[in-house]
UniProtKB/TrEMBL annotation:
Residues 1-417 form the Sema domain. The chain crosses the membrane at residues 780-803, 923-944. GO terms for molecular function: semaphorin receptor activity. The keyword Ligase does not apply. One of its GO terms (biological process) is regulation of synapse pruning. Pfam families: Plexin_cytopl (PF08337), Plexin_RBD (PF20170), PSI (PF01437), Sema (PF01403), TIG (PF01833). This is Plexin C1. InterPro entries: Ig-like_fold, IPT_dom, Plexin, Plexin_cytoplasmic_RasGAP_dom, Plexin_RBD, Plexin_repeat, PSI, Rho_GTPase_activation_prot.
């Protein structure tokens, strides 16, 4: 069985989808399961069948017997075959289990269509017979077993023995070339004696392709369709038919053939007998050609009617009934119409008919029929990422009917028949009417109906039904109005010309939908109520979409919503008339990349890059970007599904290569493609021109070696030269080859000169152009010129004269600038002083509900701060109810073993002695242990005591003050985790609100002044590193904002007209954020809106324009840097607008080179500024949030109700006791121990990481400010006096005056805790309550599995240690048993 692969769900989020699309995008692909067991063959699959307790697969020359879980049981080969692919061209044609006889019939194209009878158990061959099945690769073979008499088994076999008029290669008998259906006896496979041919094809008729064979009552049925004839002989499309046979008196005879009517579809693709209901389902397809929305259909036929019509008489000759009666489906029309059906399997579950449908683009659908045989809109159970066509035969798991096998190409996967986990409530579950899904009221969750039972949950006292879904009453209402009645009421009806002959662009649309679809037609301007009707699968609801805009009489624009992948019909209706004739549009999956050629390019751009993959024709553009805000948009791939080519843009690089992301943009979604390596431009170092071979010229170019791998057709070489001061016609060389040596690359160019003549080498210039695309030529040149000494001397003389003149001018200008600079510096200092004294403390007290994380996410973020998505494995599958009696024995024993104190302590010490047991391993092991023992906190605390005592023994000989200072041992990380668990309630109830208020206040303060959107530096900050000192003048601006669109049914009480305060230097995106926050403060809810979904328009009178950070009016500075648009720019008179591609250089308030003082000014660059002038902004920010910081600190070292948190009191008492027992008299030692165990180990970690506690994102700027506060917090616990000078860091100076006061409060805090009483029973009661409170929050089994991985890695060392320790003999035996259990699981691939 192949590995279980998961699809990467990571993708950059939507850039800016319009409001109506936001929810629809999230629905696409909902409920699709990605990770499933699978088995892969080395060749394509030919046949699949179930055999009672196993699955059979055949492909090429190979036959596999698989366990239901898809692990391999047996492998056999066709007779004479060496492996699956040799001899080449072999195909399996028959795979028919005989469960009653314990045999398996297999047929192959080898040996003129040989057939073997095998033992079903081990697949060994009993008998072999040639000329039985079709020997043609495209030929068909179907068969069915029946027993006309007890003990006698016969095989009715239909096959295609010939596809052309040529003599067939294989026939069931040498004298009967037209035979297609025969009967054979088992096991010898010989023809029965009552005649060789049961059914023949007409002598001049087309060959027959048999799709299935099945037994129903006394009748045998063989559905088939005629192969299409060549165009020359094509008269009319032949219809699929079914041959009906009945066995009487030991031999079946043909009754007649019935024509299957499924809407004039000529091909039968798949078949499924629903024996319990007496129905047969078939997937029918139109003739090969243009793919349409209605190309395929599912039709269901009544077996009783099929048998009765088969029994009716008809004229026949030579076993062939010449009259084919038409057989209609049970609904007289197709049950379900779809564009791409390829397979069907029908079954009955809880008296409901369930249909599993495969598609040609790799989807597994599930449809459920109601009592009127009408299907619901099919659910997408699974999608094959490769989008391969589903094999025509779907097979249910023979052991567990909750699974079905999905075969395609050379692979089969085991898929669950229901996605019940998507139902979140009883009502939602029952509304789906999926018989595979039930609802457990006690656990408030879905369950897969094992064994298909029905359960009704009632309240025993009141007999009240706890879960009931009533069917809605649907009332039909019609209203007929004539024209005269409308005229009498002052109304009238117009009859404009109808809309017809429409076309649509584009025809290919991704499942994300498409904005700005253009529909062409006629008579649009005179029509009203124009709507587009989008129809897909026939049982799904149609989409009626209003036209966005009528562009003119022949063009309208519409937005098509996200939908599932399939072909759909589009028509237009207007004026209450019928829809126009439909046309087909194609919804396809998102584009994806498989490879890129080449994978490198040069910095100056212009190289042709080709992407390979699928569905590129729905790509709007290719985006080239990196993590440093570089972003380019290049043209998309119109009309090309694959490959897609584009030219690389120019990117400024340093000397090193750089990886750039290539993404595909579809609507507002960026789909990651492949990384492109940008490297410096090629460097040409020399050349040699050989003219002695006149008239042949040979030119050798030399360049430095690089990884660009330039090809011959990507280089153009041109030589120019002069004669008698006249420039001659350029000579264009052809590159012969490129060779690479150890130190350089040689490019050989040759040319035969048409006009022989001498070339003056001193006038030669050689030009090298990268890439052969004229529109993007980037030229590199190097040349040899002789410089004249006289010219050089003249330049020197002129330079001296000019320098003296310029020096006088510069001195005068410099004096003026210094005076101006002095005035500006004085003004800045005075303004800063005035602001510090007059600034109002405007911290907002109301900040809404505190967005606390739940306990499990808080715990995992503190346990695994750097593990990212790794921690998520501990909360997956936590809602699955597992019977404790069914718990894994190996994990149960391991849990019991680590609950042995002596073993666990020995294990930890043994691991820590291993050299390659790194600090990271120690931290992970401690976190795994915390999770595994989360329900046994009393025991975990006891282990913590023992390990801490051992750590003290290690530290007592050196420096006891260093204990617990770092996290270098298991016990130190264990202490951090223990504090997190025990203080989570105190953190949430007491510290959480002041802490969130601090984060909110910092954000408010930062956004009060200018913030550079590129560097995130701000004028108001606590951290000097994040200070925006290159600031320009700014003013507040009050904007009147009107929200034009609010989701329906939610805008009744919403204030759509609000006032928002922004700064004139804010970018458009910054202004949007502030407007968004103002809307939230005003209305208290976002109504589902997202910032990325909001656009900003400026209205002035009758004019309006969309505001963007970059548009056609953006200012471009001298050095090519593009300045982002700001509010002051937007409020200026309307500039022109045009679509531009993002430049790789852009700025907001800081230029890239403005970190260094600018002595001179030029257009667009700011004046000389002094950073130290703005340090008062740090102090003003500190003053603004001072009360918030003090409240936070006091909440941390407060004692609510004169009682310390139990965990803190207990551990501080433990440290006091240990110091007393070790006769440590220095009080500083205990103070440092307490500081290292609580503030340093827990509180600082929380203060610097608010995202551990709240559902928020921490910006780098906020991180810098919190670091300053956390440093002040830790200084308050320090025993050393700070000696700060004028050159001390600003983060130390900010809180220098506050630290002494904080230190006194900390000392009082420590003393108060020491003086409080605490009983041992209180500690045990607290730990027991915490254990129960967080029971089953995290997955202990996963943690135990991770712990065992460490045990397995160092198993020999651990066992050796246990052998040397007394009293651990039982633990040693248990460990040996546990290892055996885990090894057995590994063999079974359960781990």
């Amino acid at each position: 069985m192949g590995p279980c692969r998961k699809k990467d769900s990571r993708r950059p989020g939507p850039a800016a989808p319009p409001l109506p699309w936001a929810l629809l995008i999230a629905l696409v692909g909902a409920g699709v399961v990605v990770c499933q067991p699978r088995f892969t063959l080395p060749v394509p699959i030919d046949s699949i069948a179930a055999s009672g307790d196993s699955l059979l697969l055949a492909g090429g020359n190979c036959l596999y017997k698989l366990h239901p879980s898809l692990s391999r049981l047996h492998l056999a080969h066709a007779a004479g075959a060496q492996d699956c692919a040799q001899p080449a061209g072999t195909h399996n044609k028959l795979l028919l289990p005989d469960l009653e006889g314990g045999r398996l019939l297999t047929g192959w194209t080898l040996y003129d269509g040989s057939c073997q009878v095998r033992f079903l158990g081990n697949l060994t061959v009993l008998t072999n017979q040639t000329d039985v099945v079709s020997c043609l690769p495209q030929g068909s073979t179907t068969g069915v077993l029946f027993a006309p008499q007890p003990g006698r088994r016969l095989l009715a076999l239909a096959a295609t023995y010939s596809l052309t008029k040529d003599p067939p290669k294989c026939v069931p008998s040498a004298s009967d070339a037209n035979t297609v259906l025969t009967v054979r006896s088992l096991p010898e496979m010989s023809l029965t004696g009552r005649g060789l041919a049961t059914l023949k094809r007409p002598a001049e008729g087309p060959p027959l392709h048999f799709v299935d064979a099945f037994l129903w009552g006394e009748h045998l049925f063989f559905p088939y369709y005629p192969y299409p004839l060549p165009p020359a002989g094509h008269q009319a499309a032949a219809q699929p038919s079914v041959a009906v046979l009945k066995y009487q008196n030991d031999y079946p005879s043909l009754l007649r053939e019935l024509r299957l009517d499924c809407g004039a579809r000529s091909t039968l693709l798949s078949s499924s007998l629903l024996e319990q209901a007496g129905l047969w389902a078939g997937v029918f397809s139109a003739e090969p050609g243009e793919r349409r929305w209605d190309s395929t259909a599912l039709c269901i036929f009544d077996m009783q009617q099929m048998a009765e019509k088969g029994n009716s008489s008809c004229s026949s000759s030579e076993h062939h009934c010449t009259e084919q009666e038409r057989l209609s489906p049970v609904k007289k029309s197709p049950t379900l119409i779809h564009s791409d059906l390829s397979a069907v399997y029908a079954t009955i579950v809880l008296n409901k008919t369930v249909l599993f449908l495969g598609t040609k683009d790799g989807q597994l659908l599930k449809a459920i029929l109601n009592d009127n045989m009408e299907p619901n809109c099919p659910e997408i159970l699974y999608e094959i990422e490769e989008e391969s066509s589903v094999f025509p035969k779907l097979v249910l798991d023979p052991v567990d009917s909750d699974y079905i096998y999905l075969a395609f190409a050379n692979e089969v996967r085991r898929i669950q028949v229901a996605n019940c986990n998507k139902y979140g409530s009883c009502k939602e579950c029952l509304s789906a009417k999926d018989p595979h899904c039930g609802w457990c009221h006690l656990s408030k969750r879905y369950s897969v109906s094992k064994g298909h039972f029905v359960c009704i949950v009632k309240e025993t006292k009141t007999n009240q039904v706890l879960c009931e879904k009533k069917e809605p009453q649907i009332m039909n209402c019609s209203c007929n109005l004539n024209n005269s009645a409308l005229i009498n009421r002052g109304m009238f009806i117009e009859h404009p010309h109808p809309i017809c002959n429409i076309s649509i662009e584009p025809l290919w649309i991704s499942v994300l939908g498409k904005r700005d679809v253009i529909i062409k037609g006629a008579n649009f301007t005179g029509a009203s109520n124009i709507a587009v009707v989008l129809t897909g699968t026939s049982s799904c609801k149609q989409d009626n979409i209003q036209v966005s805009k009528v562009l003119n009489d022949t063009h309208v624009r519409v937005s098509l919503p996200p939908r599932r992948k399939e072909a759909k019909s589009v028509c237009i209706k207007a004026n209450g008339r019928k829809c126009s004739p439909p046309i087909t549009v194609y919804y396809v999956s998102e584009p994806s990349c498989t490879k890129m050629e080449p994978t490198t390019t040069w910095a100056s751009g212009g190289r042709k890059i080709t992407l390979f993959g699928r569905n590129f024709n729905v790509t709007d553009s290719v985006i080239i970007s990196d993590d440093q805000r570089l972003k380019f948009t290049v043209s998309g791939c119109p009309g090309s599904t694959s490959p897609c080519s584009f030219l690389t843009p120019d990117v400024s690089l340093s000397k090193e290569c750089k990886s750039i992301n290539v993404s595909l943009k579809v609507e507002t979604v960026l789909i990651p493609c492949i990384e492109l390596q940008y490297c410096p431009d090629p460097i040409f170092i020399d050349y040699q021109l050989h003219t002695e071979m006149d008239p042949d010229l040979e030119l050798k170019l030399y360049k430095k070696n690089d990884i660009l791998d330039i090809s011959e057709n990507e280089i153009g070489v041109t030589l120019t030269h002069m004669m008698n001061d006249i420039r001659l016609e350029p000579i264009i060389f052809r590159v012969q080859n490129i060779t690479k040596t150890g130190d350089r690359t040689t490019i050989l160019c040759k040319l035969k000169m048409e006009k022989p003549g001498k070339i003056e080498l001193s006038t030669v210039k050689v030009w090298v152009s990268k890439n052969s695309f004229p529109s993007d030529l980037t030229l590199f040149y190097f040349y040899v010129l002789s410089l004249l000494p006289i010219l050089l001397l003249g330049v020197i003389v002129v330079a001296i004269i000019v320098t003296r003149y310029k020096s006088k001018q510069l001195t005068r200008k410099l004096s003026q600038q210094i005076e101006l600079l002095e005035w500006e510096i004085r003004k800045k200092i005075r303004d800063g002083f005035a602001e510090l004294q007059m600034d109002q403390l405007d911290v907002v007290d109301s900040f809404g509900t505190v967005p606390f994380l739940d306990y499990k996410h808080f715990a995992l973020r503190t346990f695994f701060p750097e593990s990212g998505s790794f921690a998520s494995i501990f909360i997956e599958d936590m809602h699955t109810n597992v019977d404790p009696r069914q718990k894994d024995e190996s994990l149960t024993m391991l849990h019991a073993l680590i609950c042995n104190k002596d073993f666990l302590v020995t294990l930890i010490h043994t691991l820590e002695k291993q050299k390659n047991f790194s600090v990271k391993d120690r931290c992970l092991f401690a976190s795994f242990l915390t999770i595994a023992l989360q329900s046994k906190l009393v025991y975990l605390t006891h282990i913590l005591e023992v390990l801490t005592k051992d750590l003290m023994e290690q530290s007592s000989n050196t420096q006891p003050k260093l204990m617990l200072r770092r996290t270098e041992s298991v016990v130190e990380k264990l202490l951090t985790n223990w504090m997190s668990v025990c203080l989570s309630g105190f953190l949430r109830e007491t510290v959480g609100e002041p802490f969130y208020k601090l984060v909110t206040a910092l954000n408010q303060r930062i956004n009060k002044g200018p913030v550079d959107v590129i560097t995130c530096k701000a004028l108001y900050t606590l951290n000097e590193d994040w200070l925006l000192w290159q600031v320009t003048e700014f003013k507040p601006v009050a904007l009147n904002v009107f929200f034009e669109k609010i989701p329906e049914n939610e805008s009744a009480d919403t204030c759509l007209d609000i006032e928002a305060n922004v700064l004139d230097c804010d970018t458009i995106e910054q202004a949007k954020e502030k407007i968004f926050q103002a809307f939230l403060n005003k209305n208290g809810s976002l109504y589902g809106l997202q910032l990325s979904e909001i656009g900003l328009e400026l209205q002035s009178g009758a004019q309006q324009k969309e505001l963007l950070d970059i548009d056609g009016s953006s200012v471009i500075l001298e050095d090519g840097i593009t300045k982002l648009n700001t509010i002051v720019h937007a409020l200026s008179p309307f500039p022109y607008c045009l679509d531009v591609e993002y430049s790789n250089k852009h700025c907001h308030l800081i230029l890239p080179d403005s970190e260094e003082p600018q002595g001179a000014m030029h257009k667009g660059k700011q004046k000389f500024e002094v950073k130290e002038m703005y340090l008062t902004k740090l102090l003003s920010t500190k003053v603004a949030i001072h009360l918030v910081v003090e409240n936070l600190f006091k909440s941390i070292w407060s004692l609510p109700n004169n009682k310390a948190p139990v965990a803190i009191k207990y551990f501080f008492d433990f440290l006091d006791a240990q110091a007393e027992s070790k006769k440590i008299t220095d009080p500083d030692v205990v103070h440092i121990w307490k500081t290292n165990s609580l503030p340093l180990r827990f509180w600082v970690n929380i203060l610097k990481n608010p995202q551990f506690v709240f559902d928020i994102k921490k910006t780098p700027h906020i991180d810098g400010c919190l670091s300053v506060i956390a440093q002040a917090f830790m200084d308050a616990f320090s025993l050393t006096e700070q000696q700060l000078g004028k050159d001390a860091p600003t983060n130390k100076l900010l809180y220098a005056k506050d630290i002494p006061l904080y230190k006194e409060e900390v000392k009082a805090y420590y003393k108060a805790i020491r003086d409080l009483p605490l009983l041992p029973s209180e500690v045990e009661e607290f730990l027991t309550q915490e254990s129960k409170k967080h029971e089953n929050e995290l997955n202990e089994d996963v943690a135990l599995t991770e712990i065992y991985k460490y045990i397995a890695r160092y198993y020999d060392e651990i066992r050796s240690k246990l052998e040397r320790e007394r009293g651990l003999e039982d633990a040693q035996k248990d460990l040996l048993h546990i290892k055996a259990l885990f090894d057995e699981k590994k063999k079974c691939k359960w781990m």
